[in-house]
Structures are given as C-alpha cells and as structure tokens.
Design brief:
four-stranded mixed sheet, 8 strands, 19% strand, four-stranded antiparallel sheet, alpha+beta
C-alpha cells in the first residue's frame, strides 16, 4: 500500500457503490505497517491482503463489484481464503453467486456508526442532554479558539498527540501504541493524502484538542482520530 497508487485506488473506490470507513485512503495508509497491508490491482479491482498475524487474510476487493461476472474464477476466492471487513452488499453478492462456497459471519464490532451533522451541531433532545451540558460547562470555564487543521499546524498536533500518548502510557498498550504510529503516519503525509481535514482547539495558545477527518463520498465525513487533554493535564 503506497501513496504512489492512491489515485488509482480512489477511482476504483468510487465505483463500489458502498462506502466503508476502513477502506478510506488515510485509514489504509495509516494502518498499513501495523496490519502488513498489501494491495494488487487487476483489470477491475484492487485486492487487499493483511499479512500481519499467523496467516494472511484478505479484505474486500475494491472496485465495480457488478462488473465481475464470475467471482468463482478469482484466485483469492477460489483458494478458500478468509476475508474480513467485507461490506454486507458484497458479502450477499458472493453468497448469491457462490452459494455454499461462502460462509458468512457477522462482525458486529466492525460496523460503521453514522451520525447526522445537524444533530451534533444542535445537540437537541434527551439523547444529547449530557453532551450539551458538558459543552456549556466548557464554554463557561474557558476562553478558547478553534482553527482548521492545516499544513502549518500539523507539527502542533503531532506534539500534542505525543504528549497525549505519554499521559495515557501508550507504550504499555499495544493498541494505543499502534494508533499513535498511525496518527503520525497520516499527519506526516498531510499534503499528499487527498481530502484530509480537521480542526484544533487552543486555550491560552495551548493546543488542547484536535480532530482528523477525511471525506467518504459527497455527504459523509470519516472521523479518523480525535484526542483531547484530560482535565488534570
């Protein structure tokens, strides 16, 4: 998985007809080293293989799924391999074509969660009551500034992320340590990964929170990473 072929990958991703946060470019590039991700392009698709672990597993191929007339002729499928993070529409397409040759298992922990931006802006109703109270407390206690994350502020966010890792003892947590490396990899390629965006909150010129995101289609944004200082820090 490399920056050199991200435009080719992005073109195929648009043809899937299904969007999933795992398959965003920043997610693939950020976690490629941790999961040992490799990709291969054929006539219609980009095939993704995860090599970290006891044995390789595949992610869903990306591209125009309906253009494949015979999934059984695909070597990765014909070889009896394990696939993970497969969007439901593709899984059902495989089951329809391959019948008993496909064994589906739902991975509830991999579901994407969708939130309406308008609801998060307004925080109306009982379901957002606690969040709205916390936000009002923050506004009363602090004088803060918000700015868009740009190439000029990347190093500021990287320093804050490293400080956050020290507070949370990332070296003692395999998952947090891996996430810290993924954040750094994405931020260091800020100007090369298309569409990246985000924001930074400062209190008295000290960065206290950031968010890092990427568009996923014309009306959806994937929040990849969000971190904030805890009160004691």
């Amino acid at each position: 998985v490399s920056l050199a072929e991200t435009h080719r990958y992005a073109a195929l991703a648009k043809l899937c007809g299904t969007r999933a946060s795992d398959y965003s470019i920043a997610n693939l590039l950020g976690w490629a080293a941790h999961y040992g991700l490799e990709w291969h392009f054929d006539e219609h698709l980009c095939w993704i293989r995860q090599t970290a672990g006891e044995s390789p597993v595949y992610w869903a191929p990306i591209g125009p799924w309906e253009a494949v007339s015979d999934w059984g002729a695909c070597a990765a499928l014909a070889g009896g391999n394990t696939f993970i993070r497969v969007p439901e529409r593709l899984a059902l397409l495989w089951q329809k074509q391959l019948g008993d040759g496909v064994n589906l298992e739902e991975a509830r922990e991999q579901w994407d969660y969708l939130y309406l931006a308008q609801e998060l802006m307004e925080l109306s109703g009982k379901q957002f009551h606690n969040k709205k109270n916390l936000f009002r407390q923050f506004e009363k206690l602090y004088t803060y500034t918000y700015s868009a994350l740009t190439a000029d502020s990347v190093h500021t966010v990287l320093r804050m992320q490293n400080e956050w890792c020290r507070w949370r003892d990332c070296e003692g947590s395999e998952s947090l340590f891996a996430e810290n490396k993924a954040v750094a990899l994405v931020l260091e390629q800020w100007e090369n990964i298309p569409g990246l965006c985000g924001g930074v909150i400062h209190i008295e010129d000290v960065p206290v929170a950031y968010t890092l995101a990427e568009p996923c289609g014309p009306d959806t944004l994937v929040i990849h990473f969000e971190k904030a200082r805890s009160e004691e820090h």
